[in-house]
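Figure 3 (text version): structure tokens given as input.
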């Protein structure tokens, strides 16, 4: 079955950087290459929100709150998606989830931005 596994979360100081990874298994490289993927996050007491999307063709969309600081990318041969997060702020603290169209989710990885 399709599985998504996130990694790379942790504790970082404000202004710091992290890179999240989402490794996908259970699908072919060809299917991976054409499917839209995304990163979402949920902070305590809030609903899950979109962070970034990347299409099979490589087009990207970002939430306004992360534009210019975060960058989403994908590595088709390794069936992995990344989220490079720079200039992190305390309000970026959340559990980050990766998503593969349609309807597949990872278990989430905690990102905490605090001094």
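Below: residues designed for each position.
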């Amino acid at each position: 079955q399709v599985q998504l596994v996130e990694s790379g979360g942790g504790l970082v100081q404000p202004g710091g950087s992290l890179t999240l990874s989402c490794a996908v298994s259970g699908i072919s490289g060809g299917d991976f290459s054409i499917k839209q993927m995304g990163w979402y996050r949920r902070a305590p007491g809030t609903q899950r929100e979109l962070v970034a999307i990347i299409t099979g063709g490589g087009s990207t969309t970002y939430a306004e709150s992360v534009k210019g600081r975060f960058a989403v990318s994908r590595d088709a041969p390794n069936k992995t998606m990344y989220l490079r997060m720079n200039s992190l702020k305390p309000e970026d603290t959340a559990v980050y989830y990766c998503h593969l169209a349609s309807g597949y989710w990872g278990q989430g990885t905690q990102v905490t931005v605090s001094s």
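The CA atoms of residues 51 and 65 lie 8 Å apart.
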